[in-house]
Amino acid sequence: MTAATASPAAAGSAPGVFGRMAAQGHEDVHFVSDPASGYRGIIAIHDTRLGPSLGGTRLWAYESEEAALTDALRLAAGMTYKSAAAGMPFGGGKSVVIADASRIDRPALFRAHGRAVEHLGGRYITSVDIGTGPDDMVHVRRETRHVAGLPEPFGDPSPATARGVHRAILGAVKHLRGSDDLAGRTVAIQGCGHVGYHLARLLRDSGARIVASDTVAERAQRVAREFGAQLVAPTEILSAAVDVLAPCAFGAVLSATTIPQLRCSVVAGAANNQLQRDSDGALLEQHGIAYAPDFIANAGGVVYLGQEVLGWSADRTLANVDRIYDTVQETFALAAEQRIPTSQAALRIAERRLESAGAAPS
Ligand code: NAD
What we know:
Layout: E1 2-4, H1 16-24, E2 28-34, E3 39-47, E4 53-60, H2 65-85, E5 91-98, H3 106-119, E6 124-128, H4 134-141, H5 158-177, E7 186-190, H6 194-205, E8 209-213, H7 217-227, E9 230-231, E10 244-247, E11 266-267, H8 280-286, E12 290-291, H9 294-297, H10 300-310, H11 314-322, H12 324-338, H13 342-359
Parallel strand pairs: 4-5, 4-6, 7-8, 7-10, 8-9, 10-11, 11-12
Antiparallel strand pairs: 1-2, 2-3, 3-5
Helix pairs in contact: 2-13, 3-4, 5-6, 5-10, 5-12, 6-7, 10-11, 12-13
Nicotinamide-adenine-dinucleotide binds at residues 157-158, 161, 190-196, 213-216, 219, 234, 248-250, 270-272, 298, 301.
């Protein structure tokens, strides 16, 4: 296995790896190759002021090494803000593995990844992300203990993520309406996958009416059958006339094109990077929509890892997931006080925490 801290492949593209790291504040980026297993991984460590960097492993058939690097840098920075805002003692990191999932020897590849993670000596703790699952982490675990998201004993974090999104919805509705009673209110769920399904159950239990959609018909039908959701076509979910829209499918769903079509007063969901551009936070506000920023609303999954990584009890973990309600309210209050969009207020809350860690005596 060979490793380098700056990729020749990424060099030559302006402004270059180091320029991009400096611009976004990354501490280190590791490029690791293991030809025997076909492993080509990038591990980006953004910020470790609050603790070891933590973030999942994304496996994707990237169209270029440049695209993989861009994703790793962006996702690692996102993890810094997510953990900081959630009050977790973790920094931000992420790995991407460039591979075609249909053509890999998963045990060999994930063991190579485990060796790459081990090499960092605990500065980075990995877990699951798009393209990887708990079974892959079992292979990683054979090489390093710096891994979470294993099948046992804690398993899938999605129910915790859904619980956090539910708390974010309650917090946003409370801010807007003065009461967090969801009885009689309608919530649209875009994507009835791991998170969307559990969110639907929590919303049903809160007395909310559910409108749902999924491109995989059986996932939507299950939510209709079990929780009485009204189903609409994927092309109609964003413009459904509802109180709350919960994006739980994919990122960049809120844009200059889609925002004018929304007919909700709150957006709070699980998807990462919901805003296509930073300016879309202000656009939502102009349209009178209260936005619970994505990395605050969907932090339940990262908090859930507190059990596995920090030895937290289930009670402590759930209490921290539930605090997302308060963080959402704090975000709305700061946005109002400073006259900034909630997306910016969320970043300030995270940055304050990072700065206070930096100022602490060692
Ligand atoms: P998932 O893949 O299980 O579910 C996503 C669902 O969205 C799928 O059922 C898919 O068919 C559906 N979908 C795709 N395109 C759609 C469209 N155009 N309209 C309607 N539905 C569509 O993923 P998940 O684990 O439930 O995560 C959902 C989102 O939340 C993702 O963006 C993920 O990155 C993010 N997230 C998840 C977690 C977690 O704990 N699982 C934590 C934080 C963030």
